[in-house]
Every structure is written in C-alpha cells, then in structure tokens.
Design a protein that fits this description.
Length: about 500
C-alpha cells in the first residue's frame, strides 16, 4: 500500500529523462510519454484518495529509515486532495498541448521541463520533511522559470528573469527560515518539529521564522504585496504553462506549503490568522481592481488569480472549520476554472493570433465552442449560481459573518461583483458584437484542445455537487487535516508505530 507514494515523484522524473532521451529519434515521443505518464499519475492519485479515505494517513519511510532520522513521504486528506487536483490539471494540459505546442520548435524540451515541474509539485505535496520540501520547491521553480521563457521573445525572457529574481528571493527567505528552525529543534521532519515546539517555549526566533516563511511562501503564492512577478510571468508563458502556473503551481508552492507549515507544524496564533486575513483582503481587492483595467486577456486572468488566491488565504485566516472548508473548496474551484480560462485564451490566440481585447470581437460566430466554454468558466469564477465558484464564495462570506467580520464579508461580496464586471468585459469585447476584421479567418480549435476545455467546464458546472453528503468526504477530509492543527504529529508517528 505504501509503495505507491514514491511513484508520484519517480514516474514524472523518469518521464522527463525518457522524453529527453527518445525525442531525438521520435517526434511524437514527448507527446506520447507525457500524456501516458500524466494519465497514469491521475489514475494513481484517485486510487490513493480511496486508500487514504480508508486508512486516514499513509507514511512511507524512504530506505526503511524511521523518521526523524530518515526522510518520509506522507499522504493524508490534505495531501491527496492537492495531489488529485495537480495531476488532473497536468493531464488535461498535456492533452491540450498536443496541438497547441506545434507552433514551437523543440517541443520535447517543453514536455521534459513540464514533467520536471510536475515532479517538484508532487514532491512538495508528499514530503514529510522540511528540507525535502525546499529541494522539490527549487526543482519546480527552476523548471517554471524555463517554461515562462519558452517562447524566447524579449518580453518572455524579461518576465522569466523577473520571476527568477523574485523566486530566488523567496527561496532565500525559506532556506534561512529552515536553517533557523533546524538550529532550534535539531530536526527537519515536519511531525518531529511540531513535537519539539510543543515541548519548548516559542520565543522571538519562532516568530522571526514565521515572518520568513510568510514572506517566502507568500511570494510563491503571489499574495499582495509579493505579487509583482506574476502578471508578467503568467501572461508571457505559453497558455498551457499559464494554465498550470495559475491553476496549481502557485497553490502547491505557495498556499499548500504555507498552510501545511503554519497549521500542522508551527501552529497558528491569533496574530498569524489576522495577518492571513489582511493579506487575503488586500490580494482580493487589489487583484480585482488591477484586472479590470487590463486589455490583454492573459494579463487580466493573471491579476484575477491574485484576487482569487486572496479569497483562499482570507478563508484560512478566519480559521473556523467552515471557513477552512470554504477556502479549500475555492482552491479546488480556482484550480479548475482558471486553467479553463487560460486555455480559452490560448485557443483565442491560436485561432486569431491575438489576445488584445481591442483587436477582438464577434468571436462567437467563428469560435462557438470556445465561446461557450469561456462563458461558463467566466460565470463560475464570478460566483454566479449554480456554479462551484458561487458556493465556495458563499461559504467563505457566511463564515466571515459568523466570525463577526461583517465588513470583510462585505468586501468579499463586492469583490465578487468586480470580478463579474471584468469577466463581462472580457465576454463582450472578445465574443459579442461585430466581428473584427482581423478575426474573420478564425477557425475553431482542434479536438484535443476542445477535449481539455470540455472536461474542465463539466467540472465547473457540477462542482457544487461536492457539498452533497455522498461526495463531501473528499473535501472534508482535507479540511479536517488543517482544522486538527498540530495533531498532525500524533497522526504521523502513530502510523509509524
């Protein structure tokens, strides 16, 4: 049962090397290997969800060495929740890329780098060791820098350089925090750190480490005021990369790591939760205000990601079981509708050669399928019922009211109206009205690209069903891990014994 955990790391790593090795002899090796491996990882993720549902937590000891002396991989409700989302998006992005990436030379480099990035994300999610999280974070980040610059246009290289500088600064904060925490606890195992901190007084050092982690992982999550790198990086990258970066990358390297360390290892205090709420509100509002002023579709979506991440962090800052459930549900929804919208943007650019709203118009007559998928994705992210985005935002707002933060709840509701405004702008300028002269030769995208958008749209439409008792366990088990807080250490060591 436990042996399945290393496969989520070794398989995409193996795929990256196989693609580099075989692509010189076969032009389709990259597409074939990446699609087969990501589909296998998706099936394995679903299988692991069922196993964790039965056993609650699974711990794999690498080399047979017991933690904290040895490195361990840990799968609990929160881990498998993220793992399934990441590998679902990876598979759909790979299917979409079969035709989309034909415009680029040396496609195999894209597939190899993407599988390295997937290795890093899966590794972060399953790691039970703080330094191992850092190693996988660096692996995913370096692959991400290269993928942002994949088009090798001047603006792509500039965006990648800016992203690399900001990402390196984040890595320095995180590594310094790990070093200081190790000097205080003499261990790197997450559960063991939590155990040591429960028995030792937490003075100034732990507070300083918390600030370092908040800045480092906040940069990775693109929270305001750490967001400056995201609009350039996400808008300049190829659309499959943008979909992955906004859909799951910033959530894995930022939100997942941040919440895992603070909730399950360091423990959250009232001050930390209040900081989460403030950062969430700032990100929510500033991201929406900047998005509404954009003319470039992908840049609009990039600022929108900052705003939607704000909802998740705000919910975690409320700290109540209902708020955490709502935050995780919104994380799931955003991981679905934001890749869908970036793939829509890629389809528009693929068909018209343009993604500026002032150069588009009337595309519903030429791209009816893309237009329909785009409309449904826009309605979901805007919080229109009965789509999943409506229910997750509603839960967060109700949780804020129950906690007494009525003003912040009102801000969250008004921000959702702003979100609707700029997505209506997108729909009006791109798909409605008279068709632009430059779009008259546009044709609908190929079947493989339609497939990915259709699956994501179907999930958007039916995401609300996750709140029903029959399906809620997937979401609830992830929320229970965060709500249980530092009880994580007892769960891990209890499974080892």
């Amino acid at each position: 049962m436990k042996i399945i955990l290393p496969y989520f790391i070794t398989f995409p790593l193996l795929a990256a090397f196989l693609i580099a090795l075989l692509s010189r002899k076969s032009k389709i090796a990259g597409e074939l290997i990446s699609n087969l491996f990501t589909f296998g990882l998706l099936i394995s993720s679903w299988d692991l969800v069922k196993r964790v549902y039965l056993y609650k937590i699974i711990v794999y000891k690498i080399g047979g060495w017991l933690p904290p002396a040895g490195i361990s991989l840990v799968a609990d409700g929160f881990s498998v929740f993220m793992l399934l989302i990441v590998n679902l998006i990876a598979f759909l992005v790979m299917v979409y890329s079969i035709r989309y990436m034909q415009r680029y030379t040396d496609k195999w480099k894209f597939y190899s780098l993407f599988m390295l990035m997937l290795t890093g994300m899966n590794g972060i999610i399953l790691s039970g060791d703080l330094f191992t999280i850092y190693v996988f974070l660096e692996l995913a980040s370096i692959a991400g820098y290269a993928l942002v610059a994949f088009g090798i246009e001047p603006q792509d290289l500039e965006a990648s350089f800016k992203y690399a500088i900001m990402g390196s600064l984040a890595s320095i904060f995180i590594l310094l925090g790990i070093g200081l925490l190790y000097s205080y606890t003499s261990t790197l195992n997450l559960a063991d750190i939590s155990w040591v901190l429960a028995e030792k007084p937490q003075g100034f050092l732990i507070g300083f480490v918390s600030v370092l982690f908040l800045a480092g992982f906040g940069l990775k999550a693109a929270l305001v005021p750490f967001h400056a790198w995201l609009p350039d990086a996400h808008s300049c990258a190829p659309s499959p990369v943008s979909a992955t970066l906004s859909g799951v990358f910033i959530k894995t390297l930022g939100i997942y790591a941040l919440s895992r360390i603070f909730f399950n290892v360091l423990g959250v205090s009232g001050k930390v939760l209040f900081v989460f709420m403030i950062l969430g509100i700032l990100s929510m509002v500033i991201g929406a205000l900047l998005a509404i002023a954009q003319n470039d579709i992908k840049r609009m979506f990039a600022y929108s990601s900052i705003s939607q991440v704000g909802y998740i962090i705000f919910a975690f800052g409320l700290g109540t079981p209902l708020a955490i459930l709502g935050g995780l549900f919104h994380l799931f929804n955003h991981a679905i509708f934001k890749p869908l919208l970036f793939l829509n943007a890629g389809s528009i650019e693929y068909s018209t050669g343009n993604r500026r709203l002032d150069k588009l118009g009337g595309l519903n007559s030429k791209l009816p399928f893309t237009g329909a998928m785009s409309l449904l994705g826009s309605m979901s992210i805007s919080g229109i019922p009965p789509f999943g985005g409506f229910w997750s935002k509603l839960i967060i707002i109700i949780a804020a009211i129950q906690s007494g933060y009525i003003g912040m709840a009102a801000v969250a509701g008004l921000t959702s109206i702003l979100t609707l405004a700029y997505y209506l702008k997108f729909q009006t300028f791109a798909f409605l009205g008279k068709i632009d002269e430059g779009c008259k030769e546009a044709k609908e995208v190929p079947l493989s690209m339609k497939f990915s958008m259709l699956i994501l749209t179907a999930v958007c439409v039916f995401a609300g069903l996750m709140l029903l008792p029959e399906f809620r366990s997937f979401l609830q088990s992830a929320a229970d891990v965060l709500v249980s807080g530092t009880a994580y250490k007892e769960a891990v060591f209890g499974m080892i014994q």
